[in-house]
Amino acid sequence: MSRYLRNTWYPLTWSSNVERSLKRHTVIEEDIVVYRKVNGEVAALSDACPHRLAPLSIGRLIGDSIECGYHGMTFDCSGQCEKIPGQRRIPSNLQVRSYPVTENMGMVWIWMGDEEKADKSKVFDLKEFHDPKYSYVLGDALHVDANYLNLADNLCDPSHVAFVHQSTLSNKEHGEVPVHHERLEDRVVTWRWINDSPLIPVFKGLVDFGGNVDRWHYYHYFAPSVAMIDFGSAPTGTGAEQGNRDNCIQMFACHFITPIDERTCIQHWLCVKNIPSDPEKDAKLLAGLRMAFDEDKAVLQAIQKNEDKLVDFKRVRIAIDVSTVKMRQMLQEMIEEEQLESIPFTEVV
To answer: What pTM does this model have?
Structure first.
């Protein structure tokens, strides 16, 4: 079992995927059965009947309860057993774990740790998602055969864009542009400006500035599994870098990562933008972003194969790795602090 942070909100699945039916999901190596209750709220239980460990997801949904498909025991949405066919007395320990869940930004979020610490106000939120002056496009749930921290590295790293995404988000000439980084209390931020440059391919056709632009990329990574990339462009020389962005195109690419196990994760992504919804332009933008994230996926899966094969290989760090190192250090500190808090306190007299 890998070491994961538990007391945090993990993205589970798109809200649109949760219906009045039982579906199995895996988060940090735990199998969970998820469904929508009669009142529309989401319920999530451990996907194993405590009797013979039959997956509850192969059972039947009856009202807000699950009937086990093996021996018919019924569990309510809190995980408590309500019924045992042919037996009146229900053992007090016949229950399954229920998980706190909430919904925001089109996503179901699940709390994998101590239920008493589950604070819904701590779920990631981007205010522009709710702002009527912005619009958004929901992307995909991209299955990536790679460790989620390798994807996290990618989402802390503007420098790879010039080499991996020449057909979508950049070009090779920008590989020499310096990258800056900062660790804040709740995240690691990495950024760079590329001034007096053509529009990136995915922006072409969305807006016409009539010439070159000054463009920015700010990568915000919130450990363990949320990245928000603020990127945009404004006409060259109009002061965008100094904060004047009255005439610009700005997007927020949100990446919600579900760690499944050591070698698998799901990258849920959406894009919030300061331009109105337009079916034709939105379709073009989605196609470009899908191409870009597929480019990342190909590299990350190739890296994972080499990691599995070259287990004793000592990798070399270079200057552009500072943000990824800071991100992993932040996560490690969070895990260690959580483990210390879980140790029972014994007073010495």
So the answer is: 0.92
